[in-house]
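Q: What does the assembly look like in three dimensions?
Context provided by user:
Components: two
Sequences:
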Amino acid sequence: MDVLNLNSLVEILPEWSAKQCDYFTEGLSVGLEKQGNDSGVVLEVTGIRDLKLKVEWTKCTEEIHRSWKEPKKIAEMGATALAFFLTEKLTEFVPTEEALIGTGVDYWLGYKEHHENFDEDNFMNARLEISGINKEEGSNTVEARTKIKKKQVQKSDEMKIPVYISISELNSPKSIFIQK
Amino acid sequence: MSEVRKLHKEAMSLVNESKQLDDEIASGILLHKALSIEVQAAMILFNKFEAEPTRSVLFRSAATLAYNCAEYEIAERMVYCGLSGVHLPIEIEEELCQVRDKLLALKSLSVEEKSQYNYLQILRDNAINIRLKPSLPKYADAVFIEDIVSVLKTVKTSFDNFIRVNFLQTFGIEKYGDKTNYAISKLRNDFPLLYVNSKFKSFGASLSTDAIVVTKEKYEKDVIEWRKSLFDEFKNDVIYIDYSLDKNLKYLQNKYSDDERNLIYSGYLDIFNDSKNYNVTFTDSEYEEVIKVGSSIPKDKKEQLLKKTLNTKESEKTLVRTFGMQSKGQKQIKKSDIIVSEELTNAEFSYRTSHLIYQKDSLDLKKELVLTIKYENREFSINYPPFEIEVISNTHDGVLLEFSKECYNKYRLLTSLSEPERTHETERLLNNFSEFVFSST
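A: Here is the predicted structure of the complete assembly.
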């Protein structure tokens, strides 16, 4: 089984600051621990490829736990970190930019540096939609979120660039990673 | 990292920074800086047509920023630079065209009209879009006006109650103590549900609320923050939720108590009844793409959602509107002359009075006081902000009595205050009372 070491996000995203990467992975570690998981827990991934990943991280201190209070923020950051790892593992892209304006997507993806289509000026080649849940409850499930996200990106289906959707739940933990 | 990417990154970081600021002027300065840098980034790719989609995304981003900064000439230039590309993705092309259309619409407007138009656009982007169609097209696709009014009022009532329930869940009564009811009523008045767009589709209406642009400084930060997510929560928990799924009902049962669910959902669910003259759907902003069909809620599901409340309220009186034949001089319509009668979920009455009487006490008024009595969820209420009074009762007479009692007590309290005890606030209230009160006995 492949291992997903949370400290390695900074290697995947060399053009993002270490501080930003740490923020995402810290959110993920806190989220997993708050849901009763310890380092070594198995993440079940379905979608483009079904696989299991052993997730490893350094245990968070009490102080770190205290600094993460908002469950929504934890789920959001945790899901973002997982989506970034999965993008790198399952596609030919890496996250390049947060999509702040327009489009209804969360992040832009660019070709990996050694890819034949890589062009440093053309760094927005695919799109990534992310959603996160701490624990599935009522209508708030990974499947339901996937449906909503599919609708959300539907308006740009005709666009000829790929759209990926990554939805994660931190309790089980599991992720759905699909291409729209 | 390429120069384009560095510049774009810098611009987006400024956009992010501006979002964190409460000060509109400081935020605007940062956005203008971001715009100037984003224009530079986009222009580097002006001749690099093979750099799609990045090229058009950057021009779209610069055009949107320019539009938001009210720099319409720059926005127009960025739109056409973007559209001059080759093989631009359809979605980005559409977004560039949307900015172009908004700019064209602005051209004929005055400066003041432009800012109003932009403000409305923000509200529309966040609106609930409701479409009504007659269930039997008796008059082609035309819808009865009373049906439109009834649906819009029902959604408004549900939203007003949603504000009350969520406010109490979030802040309890500790925050404002005995002024909680007044605070909620003030919040409803300051952030009302607004009618922001319409179209004949056959009837399409967009409802929205402003919790972002006009921030009321008198509210504490936690209340303003709470308001920001409230409308989205209303959309999720009331408008778009699928009531046919047990897990959703369970979720609502866990989140809201029986009474709270009754307040939010009891009248609202009725607009989907098969017996209505119309069908309700929730759509995109053009009233074309259906987001949710408002299907009739099965009886068992309705009972799950409103079960206990329905049982406990069965004995309560309801307000019924009756149409029928009435002879001249006849006080009450005969049962046999009734043509149709309908239980009302909400109604509004205007009430004029020159005396406010409570038991042996009364206030004689210099001029008529015009009150609006609202009937919602089997309760009558009067909210009169100039006197800072909001009262609720199960009966029409009861609510008038409560209002008189509150007025009398408040007026007596205000007039009994000694000079040092008076504040700016009590002075203002007393002035409002003095405008009406002639004498008290």
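Follow-up: Residues 95 and 109 of chain A are 4 Å apart (CA to CA).
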